[in-house]
Design goal:
Helix content is 46%, strand content 9%. The protein contains twelve helices and six strands. It has a two-stranded antiparallel ribbon with strand order 1-2. A two-stranded antiparallel sheet has the order 3-4. The chain is elongated, with a radius of gyration of 30 Å. The model has no long low-confidence stretch (mean pLDDT 89).
């Protein structure tokens, strides 16, 4: 009788082992496509509700098999926020959920090249990531250990030009200051990796300001170094830059074509009225515009005018420039 009981006990253990093995095999077969997700397990959740949540998130395929495994292994699942993957075995899932390894949820966002500080603040605010006013206030409080600073105090936003356009992943609830710090650090990493290509006499700050103008003026990548070269020529000859983009920066709303009154606005950003570069960048330039400002194309051109397709006609003399404008205007009629 005792021998029968011992055999029955080992038989049950063997069956249980085979069931668990079968569950694991089926699980892995069903999860060929890896899915990663943040999973929130509420307080006092039952095994059934946890299995349902994991199924909905795509972490498991069969909630009943998962429930059977949890009960067989007597796993205690803890509430919290977890980052889980469908490639994890039931054993790994249970270990993660038992240990209470909690991950904060993250949010991804992309800042396009050429966005201003205001545009960045508005985009992040619309996504619920930051408070617009707090974000802009942090920019102008400039309470950061940051190597680049504009010499003039007469700037719109102290960190304009340094919030590097890229894709970021931040924690939910992360402060405006911490998000700005990430963008500043990214700028430093990128700029330091390419600054040795500089061929001009411009300082780093002047280079960044020029890059921001190139970012706004250029629509085609291949023209960026050429446009930078035109502005360098004008600076070297003491000519005003006369960049429409610098005037656009001080206008309350975007205009496709500037009026005569616009180019007469008295502002240090108005390069139609004042010589040299504006006191700060006029947007946040990307890598290609930074490279163009660091290493402009050598050219004799002093003028350029935009075609409808975004390319430009470049001219050496004012007379050629006027003729190019007329030809473009006639061709667009």
């Amino acid at each position: 009788m005792k021998w029968y009981k011992i055999k029955s006990k080992w038989l049950l253990i063997l069956i249980l082992f085979l069931v668990i093995l079968l569950i694991s095999v089926v699980y892995k077969m069903q999860n060929a496509k890896v899915i990663e997700a943040y999973v929130e397990i509420p307080q006092n959740s039952s095994v059934k509700s946890v299995a349902k949540i994991l199924k909905e998130k795509g972490i498991i395929k069969n909630p009943y098999l998962f429930m059977l495994y949890v009960k067989a292994k007597k796993c205690r699942l803890a509430a919290g926020n977890y980052r889980l993957s469908s490639s994890m075995s039931y054993k790994e899932l249970c270990e993660a959920l038992q240990k209470g390894v909690v991950f904060k949820k993250t949010v991804r966002f992309t800042i396009p090249e050429g966005f201003t500080c205001v545009q960045i603040a508005e985009k992040l605010s619309s996504l619920g990531i930051v408070d617009r006013e707090r974000f802009l206030n942090e920019i102008n409080n400039c309470n950061f250990d940051f190597q680049f600073k504009y010499p003039s105090k007469n700037v719109k936003y102290k960190l304009e030009g340094f919030l590097y356009p890229d894709t970021y992943e931040v924690f939910e609830g992360e402060s405006e200051k911490d998000i700005i710090k990430r963008m500043l650090n990214r700028f430093v990493d990128v700029y330091n990796s390419i600054k040795n290509s500089k061929t001009t006499q411009l300082s780093d700050i002047q280079t960044i300001i020029l890059a921001s103008i190139v970012e706004k003026e250029a629509k085609k990548d291949f023209e960026r170094p050429l446009i930078a070269g035109v502005f360098i020529n004008r600076l070297n000859q003491g000519m005003r830059l006369e960049s429409c983009a610098t005037v656009e920066y001080i206008l309350p709303v975007h205009k496709e074509v500037l009026s005569l009154s616009d180019v007469r606005i008295k502002s240090p950003y108005n390069t139609y009225l004042y010589n040299g570069l504006p006191p700060s960048a006029i947007c946040n330039p990307g890598r290609k515009s930074l490279l163009a400002a660091l290493n402009p194309q050598k050219t004799d051109y002093l003028f350029f005018v935009a075609r409808k397709d975004g390319t430009h006609v470049f001219s050496k003399t004012f007379e050629e420039h006027i003729n190019a404008q007329k030809e473009i205007e006639e061709g667009e009629k």
